[in-house]
Amino acid sequence: MAAAPTSVVCRELRLRQFRNFAELDLVFPPEGAAVIGDNGSGKTNLLEAIYYLEIFRSFRGAADEQLVRFGAEAFYVRGRFEDLATGEVREVTAAFERRTRRKRVTVNGAEPERLGDALGRVGAVVFSPSDVAIVAGAPGERRRFLDIVLSLNEPGYLTALQRYRQLLRQRNAVLRRGGSAALLGAWDEGLVEWGARVMAARAAWVAARAEGFARRYASIAGGPTARLRYRSSVPLGGTEVPTVAEAAEAFRAELARIAPRERERQMTLAGPHRDELAFLLETETGEIDVREYGSGGQQRTAAIVLRMIEAETVREARGWEPLILLDDIFAELDPGRSRRILELIEAEEPGQVILTAPKASDLEMRGGSLVHWRIAGGRVFA
C-alpha cells in the first residue's frame, strides 16, 4: 500500500509593491488561515501572489505589468514552503521590473536555466469564482486549463506543447503566404509528432479523471451526475486513449483530408489548438452540455469539481498534499450545495487551506481551527 502523501505548506509570504500591497509579511500556521475582508480589500490579490509562485503568471490572466503596484517600478514575491514530513524548506521568489520587462525567478536562491524548470514547486490549487469561465466560456479556456495542469504534472508535456505552438505558427505563416505543398509539408511531420504527444496526454488525463469527476459531481449536486469528455478535432477512430503513434497516424490523415480547405482558409484547421473538453450532464432525456444548457449552479459545481481533480493530479504526480487556495468559492451557490462542497473538500483535501471571504462564514473549515485575519487597504490584521 502506498504511503499517504505528505503536506507542503506555505510558512512565510513576503510581498513588495504587488497589486495593492506596498509591503506585506505574513507567517502562516500549518493549517492555514481565513482572510476576511470587503471586496476590493486585496483578498484575491493575496491568493494571486501565492499562486504566482506556482506558475509565474496571474491566475486571473493579468499581464505582469498590471501586478506592479500603482506608482511603483517593480514587484517582488517570496514564499517559504515546508515539507511537514521531512522538514525540508524551499524558497521560491519572483520579481518583475516594469521598465525592462524582465522577470527573475529563483528556487532556493538559484536562478533556473529556463522558467519551465521552476514551475510547480509549490503544488497549489486555486479555487475561484472566475473558474466558471472554464466551463461556460470559450474552448480556449478549457484548453488553457488542460495545458496548465499537464505542464505542471506530466513530464515532457510543456516541451511538446511549446514545440507544437512554434510549428503551428510557422505552418500558418506558410498557409497565409500561399506557399507550395512541398513547403507546407516541411512543417507537417513536426506538427504531427509534437501535436500527437499533446493529444495523447490530454486524452489519457481525461480518461483517468473521468470517474472521479462524475463521483464528486454527483456528491455535490445531490443526485444527477456529469461526465468529463475529451473531444479531439482529429478523428481518433473511437479510441478513448490513443497511443502517441495512433494519434500521429490520425492527425496525419486528417491534415491530408482537409488540405484544400486549409489552403482556402489560410490556417491550420485540425490539431490540439482546436480541441475541446466537454462537461455532459445526465438527465432523464439524455445528456446535455453543461456549457450550453446548464444552470449557473451546475456550471459552478463542474468548475469546483474540475479543481478537485486537479488537486488529485497534484497529489498523485508530486507525492504531496496540495496547498488549497479558496477565493470566496461559495458566492452565488445555494446553502445545500455549499455545504456539500465544504464537506467534500474537508474529506479529500487535508493539506493547508488559505481561504478568503467577505465575512466570517458559518461554513467553517478544519473544525473552526483556522485563524481569522482581517484585510483592508492592502494590510492584514491578525
Report the count of strand segments. Answer: 15
Which structural class fits the helix and strand makeup? alpha/beta
Radius of gyration: 22 Å
Q: Show unreliable segments.
A: none
Total of DSSP H or I helical runs spanning 4+ residues: 11
**Fraction of residues in β-strands:** 15-25%
Q: Kindly, what is the distance between the CA atoms of the first and last residues, rounded to a whole number of angstroms?
A: 42 Å
Which key phrases capture this entry?
382 residues, alpha/beta, 6-stranded mixed beta sheet
Explain what the structure shows.
This protein has about 375 residues and is of the alpha/beta class. About 40% of the residues lie in helices and about 25% in strands. It has eleven helices and 15 strands. The strands form three sheets. Strands 1, 2, 4, 5, 6 and 11 form a six-stranded mixed β-sheet that branches. A six-stranded mixed β-sheet has the order 7-12-13-3-14-15, sandwiched between helices. The longest helix is centred in the middle third of the chain and has 41 residues. About 40% of the residues are buried.
